[in-house]
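Researcher: Excuse me, C-alpha cells okay?
***
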Amino acid sequence: MKKLLLFIPVLFYSCVNPSMERGFASIGEALAEVAVDLNGYAESITSDLAKIEDDIYLIAAHVEKMQEDMQEALRLIDEILSGLDRVRQQLEEAATKEQMESLLEDVQEFQEGVQVLWNLADFDADGVVNGLDQCPETPYGIPVDWKGCSADQTPVSGTTTNTI
C-alpha cells in the first residue's frame, strides 16, 4: 500500500495537462498585467497623496494666516469701537446749536467792542485816533494836521483804519 501511495503523487506530477498549463500561463500573464496596473495605480495614489499632503500644508498655513488676520481685524475693530465711544462722549458733551449761536453773538459783540477800541486807539501816536487817521503810519514825533497827515504825506482817499 505504501508503494501505491507513493505512486499516486508521481502519477499526478508526471501527468502534464497542456490546457491547464496554457490556463496557468494565461492566468500568470493576466496576474503580471494586473500587478503592473496595480503598481501604476499605487504610484499614482502615492503621488496624489503627496500632492494632497502639500495642499493640506498650504491650507493649514493659509488658515493660520487667516487667523492672524482675523486677530488683527478684531484689534482694529476694538480700536474703532473705542474711537466711536470717545466721539459719542464728545458729542454728548458738545454744545447745542442754541449754545453755539449764543456764543457767536457774544463773539460778535466782543468784536464790535474791539473795533471801537481799535478806532479810538492811536497806533502811530500822532494825536489822531485810528478811526479818523487818514495817514495811519505817520512816523513818531512828526507834526500832523487834523487828518493825521504830516506836511509831506498825502491822505489816502477814503482810508480810515476802522477795521481790524
The chain is about 70% helix and 0% strand. The helical segments are 2-14, 18-93, 97-120. The chain has a mean pLDDT of 85.
